[in-house]
Amino acid sequence: MPEPTQQLSPPATAAPDVQKRRLRWAQGILLLFHTTGFLGLAFSQDPSFYLQFVPLNLLLTLGLLLAFQPRRTAAFWGFCVVVALVGFLVEVVGIRTGLLFGQYEYGATLGPKWLDVPLLIGVNWLMLTYSAGVLARYLPLPDFLRALVAALLMVGLDICIEPVAVRYDFWRWQYDVIPLLNFKGWFAVSLILQVYFNRVEFDKRNALVPFVYLVQLLFFFALGMLL
Fold this sequence. Notes:
The protein is mainly alpha-helical. The chain is built from 8 helices and 4 strands, in the order H-H-H-H-E-E-E-H-H-E-H-H.
C-alpha cells in the first residue's frame, strides 16, 4: 500500500510532448499563412487583398518566434529593442542619403510610415537578425565566423525577397534597377548586428527558427520564379 504522502508524478516525457505539440501548431499556422499568401499573390486576380495581410504576417511570425525563445531575460528584450531601432534608423539614413543601399523609396504594402520608412521595418530587421543568428549557432565555429555566416544568410534571403518586394510595392528602386550597393550595405549592417547578437548574453536556442527561415526562403524564392 503506498504511503499517504506519495503522489503519482506525470511521465517524464509529458513536458517534451507538450513542447512538440506547440511547435507543430506554430509551424502549421505559419505554413497556412505563407501557403495562402503564396497562392493568393501568385494566382489571384486581386493580389491587393492578400497584400493587406503582410504586416499581420510579419507580426505573427515575430510573435511566434518570441514565444519559443527560452528565458526571455532583460538582456534579450534589450537586444530586441536595439536591433529594431537600429534597423529602422539605418533605413531612414538609407532613404534620405542613398549611401547605404542605393536610391529607393517604400511603397504602401508594409503599412504606416514615419520619416518615409514603415514602422514595421524594424520588426523585419529584428526577425531576420535573430533567425540568422540562431541558425549560425548550430555551427561549431568561432563567434566572428558565425557572424559572417549569419550575415550571408540574411543577404541570401534578401536576394530572394528583392524581386517580390519590387513587384508588390514593398519598395521601389530608382530606374527599377536593384543596385549591387544594396547587397553590400545589407551585408555590412547585418554583420554589425550579428557581432552584437553574439556579444549579448541570452539563450540563443529556438526550435521554431529553422522552419521560419526555410518557409520564408521558399515563399520568396517560389514567388520570384513565377514573376
